[in-house]
Amino acid sequence: MNIAMLLDMAVAGDPDRVAIGRRDSGTTCAELRDTAAGVAAVVRRSGARELVFAGVNGPAFPMMLFGAALAGVPLVPVNYRLSAEALTGLLQHTEKPLVVADEAFAGVFGEAGLDVRTPEALLAQGRAAEPVDGPEGSPDDPAVLLFTSGTTAAPKAAVLRHRHLTSYVLQTVDFASAAPDDAVLAAVPPYHVAGIGSVLSNLYAGRRMVHLGSFEPGAWLDLVRSEGITSAMVVPTMLARVVEHLGGGPADVPTLRALAYGGARMPHTVLEAALRAFPDTGFTNAYGLTETSSTIALLGPDDHRAALSSDDPAVRARLRSAGRMVPGVEGQIRDAAGGVQPPGAPGELWVRGPQVSGEYKGAAALLDGEGWFHTRDLAHFDAEGYLFIEGRADDTIIRGGENIAPAEVEDVLLRHTAVREAAVVGIPDEEWGERIAAFVVTHEGAAVDAETLRAWVRTHLRGSKTPDAVVFRDELPYTPTGKLLRRRLVTTAPDD
């Protein structure tokens, strides 16, 4: 099944429903299909083997996603925030690309001698072209190539085939299940797997998509109110900025029924503040990876409220969990020797299911003989099947032979009233192997010193997990999708 079949189903269900844009001037399902078919004609005529997109999220993005599918080539969204040098480097991993880039980024590709045009130009050419029949190819063809963030190593292109993406949608979304007034605010960048999943799942559900190209908390809230947005997806840094913008007051967004978050660890303090600011909104934690075609575990609204109000420590702890595996996806926790761990025991997460790709362009598939993919996330399941992600295996600090998860120390630091953000990393040490360095951003006007925070951690965790150094910063380095750049912190850690 080609992902363009999801669009065909939406057209067959209600061709005149507004799929993208504002209520009074948006693009209908039929218009989206016609434009995508025209874009496919342009792509085929160009002879391109990949359609590269460098730009902000907007109405053009779904048209290019389905246009590429109809043309039988993969869409390759790239991070437009990268430097010119990094963007040029990514081009070495593409094959005969047709590049579509916002005006601000087009020059980089033009200088490389590539066929480049703006989204507006591509859509104008598509609307004037004779639509093509489609889709072409098979479910095993690549639908999307997504570059990993490249924060710790050279970026790799994850291969998401049509069968992976359609499996994700068909297993987790009910067709035409949205109410007539449902609208989703799309603010996640298109080069993030959540941006791809949002287009497919919301179109299939029948939910109107409204785009916010550049995130700003005040503009986000204004658009929710003016367009009657009923659901939205954010990364943790976005939610933190919204909460900070509200300054402890209510969000006042009466139509917003559902708010999903994911892409990185959500600080517990931010989540609790958000639950108070959005008392009538159902929160969902969506955990997934690029290599799994988006979400593989969900912590739903009922779980959030139950955990927040419970006196049972085990139930309350689930507010920090990723929830339970979605239908069609299995999860296992394995130890270093490959043995499957029982509930409560830590290890590394392996997952299996039809939406799991586990494949990079130009490399052998990373699935084991039984189809399991090694996520390299440290995790455990509780007795009821709730999944707890403790961080990346590569981030583990080994101090004097003891394995220490940065997330455990960070969570304690974030419970101090003076701390707004915290990041913990290991730095080389001749005696201990690694020392623990904590980088802290305090709340505005808060006064706290390093020794106070070290003592705070020591009272909550055993002494070996106390930071050797506490470094105060005005801000911490993150990717645009909210992932902490730990390696950048390691290079700036104190020597003693």
Structural class: alpha/beta
Question: Tally of extended strands?
Answer: 24
Portion in strands: 15-25%
Going by CATH, what is the homologous superfamily of the domain at 4-172?
Answer: ANL, N-terminal domain
Helix fraction by DSSP (H/I, runs of at least 4)? 25-40%
Distance between the termini: 58 Å
Are there runs of 5+ residues with pLDDT below 50, and where?
none
Mean pLDDT: 91
CATH fold label of the domain at 4-172? Rossmann fold
CATH top level label of the domain at 4-172: Alpha Beta
Walkthrough of the structure:
It contains 16 helices and 24 strands. The protein is of the alpha/beta class and 496 residues long. Among the domains are: 4-172, Rossmann fold (3-Layer(aba) Sandwich), CATH 3.40.50; 396-491, GMP Synthetase, Chain A, domain 3 (2-Layer Sandwich), CATH 3.30.300. The strands form seven sheets. Strands 10-9-11-12-13-14-15 form a seven-stranded mixed β-sheet, with helices on both faces.
Produce the secondary structure layout:
Blueprint: H1 4-13, E1 18-20, E2 27-28, H2 29-46, E3 50-54, H3 60-71, E4 75-77, H4 84-91, E5 97-101, H5 103-111, E6 115-117, H6 119-128, E7 142-147, E8 157-161, H7 162-172, E9 183-186, H8 193-205, E10 208-211, H9 217-226, E11 231-234, H10 236-246, E12 258-261, H11 268-277, E13 282-289, E14 294-299, H12 301-309, H13 313-316, E15 324-325, E16 330-334, E17 347-352, E18 373-381, E19 387-392, E20 397-399, E21 402-404, H14 406-414, E22 419-429, E23 433-442, H15 450-460, E24 469-472, H16 486-491
Parallel strand pairs: 3-4, 3-5, 5-6, 9-10, 9-11, 11-12, 12-13, 23-24
Antiparallel strand pairs: 1-2, 7-8, 13-14, 14-15, 16-17, 17-18, 18-19, 20-21, 22-23
